[in-house]
Amino acid sequence: MNPILDELKVFTGNGHPVLAQSVCDYLEIPMGQAEVFKFANDNTFVRIHENIRQRDVFIIQPTCYPVNDNLMELLIMIDACKRASAGRITAVVPYYGYGRTDKKDQPRVPITARLVADLLTAAGADRLLTVDLHAGQIQGFFNIPVDELTVLPIMGDYFAAKEIQDLVVVAVDIGISKKARDMALRLGAPLAIIEKRRVGNDDESETMNVIGDVEGKVALTFDDEIDTGGTVVNAAKALSERGVKEVFCCVTHPVLSRNASQLMATSNFTEVVVSDTIPMSPEKQNGKFTVLSVAPLLGEAIYRIHKGQSVGDLFK
User: Fold this and answer.
1) What residues act catalytically?
2) Average pLDDT, the chain
3) Residue 58, SS3?
4) Which of the listed residues 195, 200, 268, 272 has the most CB atoms within 10 Å of its CB?
5) How far apart are the first and last CA of the chain?
6) Do 260 and 229 touch, CB atoms closer than 8 A?
7) What 3-state DSSP class applies to 256?
């Protein structure tokens, strides 16, 4: 064990143990020992198997599918650590489930992203560490410190190394345009935006218009997550219809619900680059997917939080 980190403990539930182990490997510390399982009556049970009194505890758990199970595991693990007298508890949530329900866009609907924030705080979390929230205002739902990391530098370096000529970065909707602009600046490429209109609550969307000059260029579509795949596939079709030579896809969170993986496999994307904030089962992976690890990013952020150093300096 690294003697500098002897007061640091990292635990994980069943959400993404592979990522958690990779973070521990980066930090050169062993994984914290805990058991997390369900009884026959579907109740979740957690037990921490080592002394964490006054330790700096980090619990790595994306709230991806099965969302409610992973969320309850995280809440119960936080409570277990709190009752075991942990000195500080940081919830490391690489993918923040319910992040798309961040406002009231219809009558009589909840703001579930705020509810999840309240649940994490009430459970005993002292801090949140997350990656590429769906909406930046979610940080304001918390009364505890929030560190939001981004995969922009990782993705940017990957595509910069390709030295693609005539590249244009395309935001797949107006909401992600700021981050897409940052990616465009990093790659020295122009920005285009796809205007789309969401239809109802059935995860379907209709692509409406491409704003910007894309004809004859190589397009890099940019978004924070692939859910059903409809948005990015419709974006690729719209770009092809407007004379784009080739289309790449760049997304942080590979949610890939329903038949999204098959949809991406048959799309006209040359390559789909995602991060490992969410585990991808072998059946969801195909030849078009490239997975970049966020373990070094999370590990470095955890180290800096533990040592009281700036997390923001990571992105300067």
Assistant:
1) 196
2) 93
3) strand
4) 272
5) 30
6) yes
7) coil
Cα separation, 211 vs 70, in Å, equals: 39
Question: CATH second-level architecture of 3-150+295-315?
Answer: 3-Layer(aba) Sandwich (3.40)
The pairing of beta strand 44-48 with beta strand 34-38? antiparallel
pLDDT in the model for residue 5:
62
Assigned token pair, 124: 């005993």
Fold (topology level) of 152-292:
Rossmann fold (3.40.50)
**Residue 5: phi, psi to the nearest 5?**
-110, 25
Which residues have C-beta within 8 Å of that of residue 91, sequence separation ≥ 6? 59, 61, 74, 78, 120, 125, 127, 128, 129
- In terms of Cα–Cα distance, which of 48, 42, 44 is closest to 11? 48
Six-digit token string for 171: 């935001």
pLDDT digits (tens, 9 = 90+) for 251-262: 999 999 989 999
Residue 42 pairs in a beta bridge with none
H helix or E strand, kind and range, residue 134: none
The domain locations on the chain are 3-150+295-315, 152-292
Segment 226-266, tens digit of pLDDT = 999 988 998 898 899 999 999 999 999 999 998 999 999 99
Task: Give pTM, 2 decimals.
Answer: 0.93
Q: Is the pLDDT of residue 104 over 90?
A: yes
